[in-house]
């Protein structure tokens, strides 16, 4: 998954439907993760998410007859991507959800594009920080700071640490976009996703045993339902759908999915868990949304058009 905001296409009705489905799937992943956390630890949740998703994608790659590179570069690429795009962000966000609302986690997750623009500008000459991107980044940072709230800066507690952990996950996502562009050139997306999740699972096994003990499979039905959703639907199938949307809509339009995910997560959290967010969270998300729109730059192009 990359964070470039340069590729923009006109959207067909079918592309809109695909983007809406993807937003619903990813929005539901925050609630599913929170349900799983009622019985199992955050690291065990991540292990289930990456492990079952990797198995599904292995089956997909095998069924499609896709070639899997047998080079050390591919192994290193998968290891780095597994850490940056799965182990670190999934782990930080799952732990963070123990102490903050799933809707707030989704709001912070929307800042991935903001950090992605900065990471790309630092790493690539063709991703320079134009004036509208710089303005979008500034608005995005103000949005994140507003969502956190002044009280969190004044008195640092466990909730404040959880918010910073989730933001750390978004930074890791952003760096993963740079890593993917450098290391996965010429690799088929499904193969890259399969390798990434496989490597993440390998990393997670010793982490889980060390921090939370050997996982038990004797879990409640609701926990298994949450695990099944977050791993098979929101990870394996969502990756496959993501690349279809990317081809149909372009990377620029995928920022619209980012904006749609947070409201879905907020509504589901309020409905299923009776979560309530402070007013500054909504104000911060509004600022973040404006920042993403400015980053996109399409509004300014349309104003210049006759």
Task: Let me know the average pLDDT.
Answer: 89
> What best-fitting shape do the alpha-carbon axes yield?
globular
Secondary structure: helix percent:
over 70%
- Which percent band covers the strand fraction? under 5%
- Describe the main β-sheet briefly: none
Measured between the Cα atoms of the first and last residue, the distance is 35 Å
Low-confidence stretches: 1-7
Molecular structure report:
By secondary structure, the chain is an all-alpha fold. The protein has one domain (13-301). The protein has 13 helices and no strands. Helix 1 packs across helix 4 (102-109). The relative contact order is 0.24. The model is unreliable at 1-7 (pLDDT under 50).
What does the secondary structure layout of this molecule look like, with pairings?
Blueprint: H1 13-36, H2 42-64, H3 72-96, H4 102-109, H5 112-123, H6 131-148, H7 150-154, H8 158-183, H9 189-212, H10 221-249, H11 254-273, H12 279-296, H13 298-304
């Amino acid at each position: 998954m990359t964070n470039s905001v340069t590729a923009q296409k006109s959207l067909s009705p079918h592309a809109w439907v695909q983007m809406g489905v993807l937003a619903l799937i990813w929005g539901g992943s925050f609630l599913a993760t929170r349900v799983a956390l009622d019985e199992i630890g955050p690291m065990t949740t991540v292990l289930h998410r990456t492990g079952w998703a990797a198995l599904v994608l292995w089956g997909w790659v095998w069924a499609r007859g896709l070639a899997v590179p047998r080079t050390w570069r591919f192994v290193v690429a998968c290891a780095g991507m597994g850490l940056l795009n799965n182990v670190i962000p999934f782990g930080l966000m799952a732990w963070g959800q123990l102490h903050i609302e799933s809707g707030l986690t989704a709001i912070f997750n929307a800042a991935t594009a903001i950090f992605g623009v900065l990471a790309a500008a630092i790493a690539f000459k063709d991703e320079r920080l134009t004036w509208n991107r710089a303005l979008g980044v500034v608005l995005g940072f103000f949005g994140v700071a507003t969502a956190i709230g002044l009280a969190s800066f004044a008195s640092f507690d466990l909730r404040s640490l959880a918010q910073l952990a989730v933001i750390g996950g978004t930074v890791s996502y952003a760096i993963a976009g740079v890593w993917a562009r450098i290391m996965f050139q010429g690799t088929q997306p499904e193969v890259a996703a399969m390798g990434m999740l496989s490597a993440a699972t390998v990393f997670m096994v010793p982490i889980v045993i060390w921090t939370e003990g050997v996982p038990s499979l004797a879990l409640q039905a609701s926990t298994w339902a949450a695990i099944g959703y977050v791993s098979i639907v929101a990870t394996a199938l969502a990756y496959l759908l993501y690349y279809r949307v990317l081809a149909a809509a372009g990377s620029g339009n995928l920022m619209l999915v980012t904006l749609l995910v947070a409201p879905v997560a907020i509504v589901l959290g309020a409905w299923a868990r009776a979560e309530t967010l402070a007013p500054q969270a909504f104000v911060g998300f509004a600022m973040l949304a404006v920042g993403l729109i400015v980053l996109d730059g399409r509004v300014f192009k349309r104003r210049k058009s006759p």
